Amino acid sequence: MRRILYTIGFSLVLGSSFYCKASSGEDPLVALLSSPPVISSVTPQIGTPTQNNINAVYSATEVVIKGENFGIDPVIRFNDVVAAISANLGTELYTKVPDGAYSGFITVSKSGGSCLPNSKEGANCAGTEFFIDCYASTNKQYGSEIELKQGQSLSVEFGSIETKAFHTDTLLGSRNLVIGCQSAVTVRVFSRSCQATDYVLQNDPVIPFPGGVATQFYITANAATCSLVL
């Protein structure tokens, strides 16, 4: 009986020793390289690409991504748009919102990894939501944005040469914004990546809006009551 117990005990010790040696033989560098990156925070989580419009220039928002295991040569994307990295401090990555970026996901993938298009999923990939706001960079100089929903109409009072900021909800399909006003109006419409199109001094304009996105726009009128229909 003692011989049997001794044999069992010896086998357990030998097995444990073998397991420890096998585990300790794993290359920590290989383990680190094969582990996905981790994002703990993105600051700020709302920003804008460079805006160079007729009467205003706004710089691209600087973004700091904090986390770990970013690797030596990570890639930052805003959806499918690659962003330049100005500094990699190991646990912090510094970048700016690139031209063409739009609301969706900001992702970090390690060298050899990849993120699925317009997604935060993939191999050696980490991501979180990021929002493009074309108006926030102006410090909301025209006051709070007024929301115009699909199928809704609004009546808006303008003072003497006054500009107001608006945004739609996410449109299910392409729509026309129909403006009826007692004066000629100037309308600035932003694309989803904050490129502006201006409709200058038009009477009762009809302006196309794309489906699938929320659109931001300004209206400037002179002492008038304007109706907006979407």
TrEMBL record:
Keywords, in A-Z order: Signal
Signal peptide from the UniProt entry: 1-22
NCBIfam families: LIC10067_lipo (NF047769)
Protein name as it appears in the record: IPT/TIG domain-containing protein
UniProt lineage: Bacteria, Pseudomonadati, Spirochaetota, Spirochaetia, Leptospirales
